[in-house]
Specification:
The chain has 549 residues and is of the alpha+beta class. It folds into three domains: 5-185, no CATH class; 209-363, no CATH class; 378-524, no CATH class. The chain is built from 25 helices and twelve strands. The protein has helices at 13-21, 38-49, 94-105, 140-144, 146-157, 165-177, 190-199, 209-217, 224-232, 235-240, 245-257, 262-266, 270-291, 306-318, 325-340, 348-363, 378-383, 391-402, 418-421, 445-448, 459-465, 470-480, 484-489, 495-502, 506-524, and strands spanning 5-8, 25-26, 56-63, 86-92, 108-109, 112-113, 118-120, 125-127, 137-139, 181-185, 430-431, 454-455. A five-stranded mixed β-sheet has the order 1-10-3-4-2. Helix 14 (306-318) packs parallel to helix 16. The protein is elongated and about 110 Å long.
């Protein structure tokens, strides 16, 4: 017998209702609010009357330590504390369970009056009564209640409708004794339960952690999803690129509880979010402006989106709109080593918490560097491809962007907005050796898509050199632009790499350019300094599928 899953085969509807009324069965805060209309409750009751299955109910048994996750549902009059030391959360079937409860108990929720739902003895069906009362309509809550149903039997036995008594008894028994399929999970952590909840969502669409947080903190006058959409609609943010919803919930959890793990994100309350929303958003805007110093001119090339949440935490805790000069250098070291050690490629939220502790210590006066061991080779850089998600690729793009690259035909500054840095396979992502000619160069698609064959240039220039060999277009621009060598240096293309490109020598070009970029990475990561480095999880760049980017 499994110690983590329990199949309950003896439960009836009456057991379910009793568990709710005893406080032993609770609705978690990350469940959606109750939305079923009376007509849908009627449909559920008629399914039971026809003895159709009404689905399995999935519960999670836990202890009172998780009471903070209980959703209080107004108008249900359920107890705040469980009868026993342990209780169960409803993971799947909340709408059906709540529908049964409000229908069988005749509750009124806002403008919806479930006490009007009735069973018609003549039509032999559950329904919402017509405006004019009809004979044979019996309120469902009276049929479910044992005392009331006995009164109905006595009443109908003496008023000339004794033939209806068996149907009354049948309905009363059905509503109380209808068999249920229940699965209960035991000895599971919150993270495991969240994953279960995501997977068993009836709609077939896998819910994200944000979906759960959104549902948990929602109110009519505070919709977290709408608030985030408003921020992303701001002109400056639109130019930078949409900030993922998870960054907002991670930031809120860090700012409110100093912890952004799943549990603390799910512990966010409506009041917490309302109180800290404005300042948290201000801090996220400040973080966006600050990381542009690291070449992150566009959200698409940020090494890890969650780096934003850590940087905004500095502004929030310091309660300032600037980062002091000494801290800028330390945060720069942290940013680059966290990137090229691929620190957040596993255990992201736990590592974020560790880095957030360092941020708070930094503000408190402890100026200890926080850098991570970086072990990169030229082969690693070459394997970082533009058509794949890669932290190393994004880090290299940031370094390229920091150099304020220019078009090498005329020296005009390239605008590094979404036009040039969006989709990895867009036409604006310029291959120095054109993609369309990879066969002529005897290269593979992986070779041609290397980040070492990418350069930030304008859409105009990209269109001009499309399908031309470097030996052709570089000769033209070298004749017209006396500063082409200086312009190419801004792209980490040295004179030797330039010479290789003019010979259409791809191998030498990427080797020399890759070495230049590797030297810059070593400089940014302070590899040659006597600074103690911390270990950080690393993964193969070629297979990188960063959970955050």
């Amino acid at each position: 017998m499994s110690e983590r899953i329990q199949m309950i085969t003896h439960w009836k509807v009456v057991n379910l209702i009793n568990e709710l009324e005893n406080g032993n069965l609770r609705i978690p805060r990350f469940q959606r609010a109750y939305v079923w209309e009376p007509s849908k409750v009627v449909k559920l009751l008629n399914s039971m009357y026809k003895e159709y299955p009404i689905g399995t109910f999935f519960l999670w048994e836990t202890d009172r330590g998780m009471e903070c996750f209980c959703r209080k549902v107004p108008h249900l009059d359920l107890p705040d504390r469980p009868e026993a030391g342990r209780f169960s959360f409803i993971l799947d079937g909340q709408q059906r369970i709540t529908s049964l409860y409000v229908g069988l108990k005749g509750k009124v929720i806002e403008t919806r009056d479930y006490s009007k739902i009735c069973f018609n003895l003549d039509k032999k069906e559950f329904r919402i009564p017509r405006p004019r009362p009809e004979a044979g309509d019996i309120p469902v809550y009276k049929l479910y209640d044992a005392t009331e149903s006995q009164k109905l039997v006595a009443e109908y036995s003496t008023t000339g409708r004794a033939s209806d008594v068996p149907e009354i008894i049948n309905c009363s028994t059905l509503l109380r004794q209808y068999p249920l399929s229940v699965i209960k999970s035991l000895n599971m952590t919150l993270d495991e339960v969240v994953e279960i909840f995501e997977r068993i969502n009836q709609g077939g669409k896998r819910l994200s952690l944000f979906d759960l947080v959104h549902a948990s903190v929602w109110s009519e006058d505070f919709d977290l999803r709408e608030k985030i959409e408003e921020v992303n609609a701001e002109p400056a943010i639109k130019l930078f690129g949409e900030i993922g919803a998870e960054i907002f919930t991670q930031s809120l959890a860090l700012n409110i509880s100093n912890d952004c793990t799943n549990r603390h994100q799910l512990e966010l309350t409506n009041q917490d979010c309302r109180t800290h929303w404005k300042r948290t958003v201000e801090c996220i805007r400040l973080a966006v402006d600050f990381i542009k110093n690291f070449g992150v001119q566009q959200m698409a090339i940020i090494p890890y989106p969650s780096l934003l949440a850590i940087v905004q935490h500095y502004f929030f805790v310091a309660d300032k709109d600037v980062i002091v000069q000494d801290d800028k250098a330390l945060i720069s070291d942290w940013f680059w080593t966290a990137t090229f050690s691929q620190r957040y490629s596993s255990s992201t939220l736990s590592r974020m918490n560790e880095d957030a502790v360092w941020i708070r210590d930094l503000i408190g006066g402890n100026k200890t560097p926080r850098v991570f061991a970086v072990k990169l080779t030229l082969s690693d850089l070459r394997k970082a491809r533009m058509n794949q998600r890669s932290v190393i690729k994004n880090g290299v793009l940031c370094i390229m962007a920091m150099n304020a690259p220019v078009d090498f035909d005329n020296g005009d500054v390239v605008t590094l907005d979404k036009t040039n840095a969006s989709r990895a396979n867009s036409k604006e992502n310029h291959h120095f050796f054109p993609y369309s000619l990879y066969g002529e160069f005897a290269l593979t698609k992986n070779d041609i898509n290397s980040v070492l064959n990418f350069a930030f240039i304008s859409k105009r220039l990209n269109g001009e050199i499309l399908n031309k060999k470097p030996s052709v277009y570089l000769a033209k621009y070298e004749a017209a632009n006396p500063r082409i060598g200086d312009n190419l240096m801004l792209h980490y293309i040295t004179s030797d790499a330039f010479a290789a490109a003019k010979r259409d020598d791809f191998e030498t070009f990427v080797s020399i350019r890759g070495t230049s970029l590797l030297n810059k990475i070593e400089e940014l990561c302070r590899v040659n300094d006597n600074v103690e480095t911390l270990s950080a999880a690393t993964i193969d760049v070629d297979d990188d599928a960063d959970e955050e980017s």
